[in-house]
Amino acid sequence: MDYELISQTALFQGCSPSETEKLLHGLKTFTKKYKKGAPVYLAGTPVTDIGIVLYGTVQIENNDLWGNKSILSHVEAGQAFAETYALCGEPLMVDVATAEPCEILWLDLVPMLQQQNTAASWYPKFLHNLLLLSMQKNLALSQRIRCTTPKSARGRLLTYLSAQAVRAGSTHFSIPFDRQQLADYLNLDRSALSKELGKMRDDGLIRCRKNEFELCGTE
After folding, report:
1. What is the pTM of this model?
2. DSSP single-letter state for residue 68
3. Residues with Cβ within 8 Å of residue 172, at least 6 apart in sequence
4. What are phi and psi of 44, to 5 degrees?
5. d(Cα 214, Cα 211) in Å, to the nearest integer?
6. What is the pLDDT of residues 50-75, one digit of tens each?
7. How crowded is the C-beta side of 33, counted as CA atoms within 13 Å?
8. DSSP assignments along 73-101, one per residue
9. Distance in angstroms (rounded) separating the CA atoms of residues 39 and 104
């Protein structure tokens, strides 16, 4: 197991490779590789392990019984998912699927948080990272709610693209979605999304090519 790579992930940030090895020693951990579009977790599955993306990306999705899909969040390399369900022992209420080929490290969180580990050098770092991860997830979900609140397609796109520009610190930036994924994230029909992007380009608001965007006429 590559402890140096694992120590660079968000959940083990600040831990040395040797601390990471001690942390994981004796725990049931394993890595698994997935193809693009592969299901990782399905809604209703009892969750005991947290997933850490070592490379590639996964998406957290909500799929209803009629086949409608909404993308709730995008998990990049170094990030983790399913931690809340794993700690609470609750069945997953969403689906998790790969957005591109990836490798995931699986581990059981509960043994790490037991009383006997509180004096270990890695424990405060790990606990801090776990809390920070939870707060970041709350921010990501709040951002999605804000992006899907406007009633019009243009309103949702402007909210999302403005947030991405602020995050990038530039009016020229790339987004982690293709057109279908962006439509799923914003709860829009793909054709309506493409049509509105065309109008915004004609109106001089944006320039775009694939997942590259530039906001025009902004201060």
Report:
1. 0.83
2. -
3. 212, 213, 214, 215
4. 95, -10
5. 10
6. 999 999 999 999 987 778 889 999 99
7. 2
8. EEE-TT-EESHHHHHHTPBPSSEEEESSS
9. 12
